[in-house]
Every structure is written in C-alpha cells, then in structure tokens.
Design goal:
With 395 residues, this protein is an alpha/beta fold. It folds into 2 domains: 61 residues, no CATH class; 323 residues, TIM Barrel (Alpha-Beta Barrel), CATH 3.20.20. It contains 13 helices and 12 strands. It has an 8-stranded parallel barrel with strand order 1-2-3-4-5-8-11-12, surrounded by 5 helices. The two termini are 12 Å apart. Its EC number is 3.2.1.39. GO terms for molecular function: glucan endo-1,3-beta-D-glucosidase activity.
Length: 395
C-alpha cells in the first residue's frame, strides 16, 4: 500500500510529501515545538569532558519537553543554543565570583555581559548568586553573599530587568538545625544571622528561597532505620504524622520542604516561596554507598515525576505545586568525590537513558546551525527531501 493511501488520501506520493514538508517547515507544525512542557526543571551540569554540544543538548531538552533548565554558570554557548525556545533558565554566579559581585560596577558588568544580551530571546528568569555558600567554613564568603545579591539586584534594576529576573541563592539542607517533625523545622544557629536579612531581601524582591534536598543522603547515612519506601515516594510507605499539626507525610522530600517553610516562618516570613533547586538519586556508587542503584534511582525519579505532573503541593501548602529541579541531566565524569557524584544523571552523554522513567528525547547526531530553529528546519528539510526523492524514483 502506498504511503499516501495509508493516510486516507488520493494524492500522488510527491504531492503528499511536499505537503508534509510545508507543514513541518512552518511554525505551527514544527516537529520539535511543543505546546507546553513538563513543569519539571533539570540541572544541566557540565563537569565532564564527554558531553554533547549545547546545540545538540538544546534539541534534546526540548524533545524531552522539559520546560526549565538550571545552570551553575551563564555559559554563552548554552544560552545562545536556546534562543527562541520556551525553556526558562536559571543562570548562576559561581562561589569563586561571589565576593567580586559586592562591587556594584562588577555586578553591573556581569549582568550586562551574561544576562542582558540574551534577553528576550533566551528566557532567563533567575540568577543564583553562589551555591550552598552557607554550608562552608569561609566566613568572608558568607558575609559577602547578601551584599553580592543586593548588587546584582541593583544591576538588574538599572537596566530595567527587576521583576523579570529574580535574584536568589541555593542552600544545602545542612543549614537546617532541625527538620523533624516538619513543624519543628528550624535553621541552625550559625546560619540564622545570615538568613534573617537574606529572607528580608528575598521578601522585598519577591524572589524564592532555593533548597537542595536529597532524601538519598538520609537513607545512605542510616539505611537500617530510614524506611526505603518513605524516601522513594512508594505508595505503600507507612509515612509519618506530625503530632503538632496532624499532617501526614508519605514521603521525605515533602517533609523536608515543609521543615524549611517552618524554619522561614520562625524568622518572621510567610511570603517567601520555597523551591527545590536540586534533588536526585545516584544510579551507581561506591560499595559503602547504600542504595545507589539504577532501580532505586528509577523509582525515586519516576515517582517524583508523577507527583510533579499531578501538580501536588506539600501537606503544609497543598494548593501550591512543588517547584522541582531534578539533578541532573547527564552523568558528569569529572566530578570529584565518591562514585555517586558522577552518576546522578538521567542520561548518558550519548543521550541514552541511564534508566527508564518515561522521558523520551532525541539527541541529533550533529549540530545544525547551533541548535536554532533554522537548523532544525534544515535537518527536517534534508530528511524529507531524501524521502521525496526515493518515493518519486519508486512511483
């Protein structure tokens, strides 16, 4: 049966394929362009020497229908590769540059170089100033954090980008002095002097509080006493009930998020949203890293994605869907530390899944115009021209 007949048309094969070609080369029918993406975000780390080019990654991410990407820098090649797409970006200022950002001129220069040129083509919506700064022992760096955030915010204001681009920083859960029960959540005493004014800034700037949450760490530290079902979002998890609020938690991640909300409230704020800037599960680890298996990673991420798709909130904030950035897009072979650090990726560098959670993507074999719309159309054009030529030769 001819291809045109299978599709219920009497057109000659040549006209049929020309019609398909025209549809695919228009905006309305572009094969790669999605109407809406998943509300999940993904961390795109690049501590590796075997990753595909940003142009190819751009196509891959869009084909997976991921709607948000978080970087740890402001890689110009990545930002350029996502021009004219619907993908939102969080860009980062590395810890090594935080102290320099205290100077308004340096912050202004950074914004003018790394943010302003890419807007509005690339949808940069947030800047993270440092990552897990308050977890470390560098008191000078900690003292620089808020002034640096303020300088970056002032730089955005100077070019009219306040309100369009948020300014925040990402924290380790280690800043918490207590997380259980969630209603007793409180920041550690060493962190409070930094967090009190930082929260005032976030509130005034209407920026989110970012927290890196890894239930895996709790399980790894005490696998004999931390219920695996509870950390993996399993439906048969016994869960825990917060005696103070009567709220029941069927997974650890949501309990951790609510403990952060409780800690923020204890410092006088109910107007700052909490977002999970990192969470994930390693598919491989060293012999002493309990639970680092592809089976557990698939279960954790798969169940998490189901919660995200449901738009589910935490017990404390049931009407506010949890905003999550999964860690990470790729395995990163140059990351230091235990084996688990190099095995958090959903994908291998060749684009194949480390484990199957239902995310389907396509990594093109080569670059086409740096991953831009024209490049994708060129790829489609060449492919369909080849099909038309073969069809005409057979008709």
């Amino acid at each position: 049966m001819a291809v045109a007949e299978r599709f219920g048309t009497r057109w000659p094969p040549s006209r049929f394929f020309v019609a398909v070609l025209l549809v695919l080369l228009t905006d309305g029918g572009a094969a790669w362009k999605r109407a809406e993406g998943l509300s999940m975000g993904i961390n795109y780390g690049q501590i590796a020497d075997n990753l595909p080019s940003p142009a190819r990654v751009s196509y891959l991410v869009r084909s997976m229908q991921v709607s948000k990407v978080k970087l740890y820098d402001a890689d110009p090649y990545v930002l350029s590769a996502f021009v004219d797409t619907d993908v939102e970006f969080v860009v980062g200022i590395g810890n090594e540059n935080v102290s320099a950002m205290v100077e308004p001129a340096a912050a202004r220069a950074w914004v003018e170089r790394h943010v302003q040129p890419y807007l509005p083509g690339t949808r940069i919506t947030c800047i993270t100033v440092g990552n897990e700064v308050l977890k470390g022992n560098d008191s000078a760096l900690k003292a620089s954090l808020l002034p640096a955030m303020q300088s970056v915010y002032q730089a955005l204001t100077a070019v009219g980008l306040q309100g369009r681009v948020n300014v925040t920083t990402a924290h380790s859960l280690d800043i918490m002095g207590s997380t259980y029960p969630p209603s007793a959540g409180a920041f550690g005493p060493d962190a409070v002097p930094y967090l009190q004014p930082l929260l005032a800034f976030l509130s005034a700037a209407r920026s989110p509080f970012l927290i890196n949450c890894y239930p895996y760490f709790a399980y790894k530290a005490d696998p004999g006493n931390v219920p695996l079902e509870y950390v993996l979002f399993q439906p048969d998890a016994a869960g825990v009930t917060d005696a103070s609020t009567g709220l029941r938690y069927d997974n650890m991640l949501y309990a951790q998020v609510d403990s952060v909300y409780a800690a923020i409230q204890k410092l006088g704020h109910t107007d700052v949203d909490v977002k999970v800037s990192e969470t994930g599960w390693p598919s491989r680890g060293d012999p002493d890293e309990a639970g680092a298996t592809p089976e557990y990673a698939r279960t954790y991420i798969g169940n998490l994605l189901q919660r995200i798709e449901m738009g589910q909130g935490t017990p404390m904030r049931p009407s506010a869907p949890v905003d999550v950035y999964v860690f990470a897009l790729f395995n990163e072979n140059l990351k230091p530390g235990p084996a688990s650090e190099r095995n958090y990726g959903l994908l291998y560098p060749d684009g194949t899944p480390v484990y199957d959670v239902g995310l389907r993507g396509y990594l093109p074999p080569m670059d086409y115009s740096q991953g831009t719309r024209e490049g994708v159309r060129f790829f489609v054009f060449i492919s369909l021209v080849a099909i038309v030529s073969i069809t005409l030769s057979l008709s």
